[in-house]
Write a structure and sequence with these properties.
about 120 residues; alpha+beta; four-stranded mixed beta sheet; two-stranded antiparallel ribbon
């Protein structure tokens, strides 16, 4: 049977609360933007699934079609496309990322203990 990459991606993004599609692997990112996403998630101490698009050309093209977003890396939270490096960095700087993670039950390492009481 021909491969249904869109269905595969749909399954992948549903598997974990945070899923990223990147160039390389978290231990050895192969582009600066993928590296930045990994570093941001590390600061928040988030556990996530990472998929290396460089080892799978169909996945690399398929993910761009899936999100209608032309570039990699791509970050998904709870199956929903959040954005690439710029958007994640912006959310990290504004504190929005902490809130997004909190919504899906993930406690960011950068969360202010004071905020938890609210």
């Amino acid at each position: 049977a021909p491969r249904d990459v869109q269905k595969e991606i749909g399954d992948l993004v549903a598997k974990n609360k945070v899923v990223i599609f990147m160039k390389g692997v978290p231990e050895a990112p192969q582009c600066g933007f993928s590296n930045a996403v990994v570093q941001i998630l590390r600061m928040h101490a988030v556990t996530y699934d990472a998929h290396n698009v460089l080892v799978d050309e169909e996945l690399r093209q398929g993910i761009k079609d899936f999100s209608s977003w032309p570039t990699i890396p791509q970050v998904y939270i709870e199956g929903e496309f959040i954005g690439g490096c710029d958007i994640l960095l912006q959310m990290h700087q504004t504190g929005e990322l902490i809130e997004e993670l909190q919504k899906v039950g993930i406690k960011s390492a950068l969360m202010d203990p004071e905020d938890e009481k609210k």
